[in-house]
Amino acid sequence: MNETLELALTFAVSAAIGMLVGMERERKPTAKAGLRTFVLIAVLGTACAMLAGMLASPWLVPVGFAVVGITLAGAQLADPRTVAEDSGTTTVVAALMVFVLGALNFHGERTLAVALGIGMTALLYFKTELEGAATRLTQTDIRSMLQFGAVSAVVLPLLPDRSYGPYGVLNPFNIWLMVVLISGVSLAGYVAWRLAMERKGLLLTGLLGGVISSTATTFAYARHARNGVRTPSATLVVIQLANVAKLLRVLLLALVISPPVLPFLLVTLLPALVTTAPALWWHFRRASGERGEDSDRLQNPTQLGTALLFAAFYALILLAAAWLSDVVGSGGLFALSFVSGLTDVDAITLSSARLAEQGNISLAESATAMTVAVVANMLFKTAVAIVVGGRAVGRLVAIAFALPLAGTLGGLIALRALA
């Protein structure tokens, strides 16, 4: 591209970033910087970065940064009304960020600058929602989130990335990385569930509950149905959606750990997803208008003790799967998958995907092991519904799960034929 056109595009992108943030700040009457000011600040950042290079004077960028901050802070302090109502700190910091993004854009980080500009605008725009979010999270939730930060950012880098034990499958770094992955997925679902408390419908309740724990969600709603708190149709909608979330979670984990396994896994799990639709649609229409509710069974999934237990269980499953596959063959691996899948699908999903990635088992065997765990988990949730919800609710859950189970078994037959 012509050098002049490239430079013009750079300034245009900076102006667009400033305009985006400035439009949001324009909504605030007391803000001392609006659309035009933010555009000029972004362009100033780009100009300072350009002049710093041309004149070999890198101090121009920090000086420009300081001038922007001092100017806006002075404008805020000079207005008694602004000082009384709002310190304007957010606007000043946003303006300084826009200046920096203008400089970043000039130095070739255009995509990063635009992404940060959009993210910053969203952060400013959703002020009310974010402030409300803080009140919905308990001290225990925040403490658990800090623990997740510690296990991911502090503990993980300290672990050795070496293989130990029989079959070389016990790698401390990889084991803890799987803990971080599972905790992160569950935490994302839990935070979304907590933030959506006031407006959760059945769809959101089922899907988010399934991301956190499909078994706990099944237990809670089966109990609600038995106590008359929820209608059978509402209970079925939530339980089926929680199972759908579990299936999607298995597909996501397989994609992250061993992408080549995913096509084989789709052969078995896609029929289960498709065959869930008829019963789900039928019960959703009958439960129209009902809302979801909070459940004392859904606890924050990032407790440190929970992470340690999962790490130990995952390591044990990984070692047992490798040993059974070597000594007994695929039959031993599938038996282990069924037993572990009764209560937890994540561990066998991660271990079989890891073994396939390392070449210890075939892709088809890995997908089969995951699918067997899913089947065992659906059977276990049916039993939970019968025991907790009573025979009437259990019968409805068994009927609703019949088609997904049949679809999954058909997929297993097809997978065996393809393999």
Structure description:
With 419 residues, the chain is mostly helical. The protein folds into 2 domains: 3-125, no CATH class; 138-418, no CATH class. It is 80% helix and 0% strand. The chain has 17 helices and no strands. It has helices at 3-25, 35-54, 60-77, 80-85, 89-106, 110-125, 127-136, 139-158, 172-195, 202-226, 232-257, 262-286, 304-327, 330-341, 346-358, 363-389, 391-418. The chain is globular. The two termini are 51 Å apart.
Give the structure's gist in a few sentences:
The protein has 419 residues and is mainly alpha-helical. The chain has helices at residues 3-25, 35-54, 60-77, 80-85, 89-106, 110-125, 127-136, 139-158, 172-195, 202-226, 232-257, 262-286, 304-327, 330-341, 346-358, 363-389, 391-418. It is globular and about 75 Å long.
What's the topology here?
Blueprint: H1 3-25, H2 35-54, H3 60-77, H4 80-85, H5 89-106, H6 110-125, H7 127-136, H8 139-158, H9 172-195, H10 202-226, H11 232-257, H12 262-286, H13 304-327, H14 330-341, H15 346-358, H16 363-389, H17 391-418
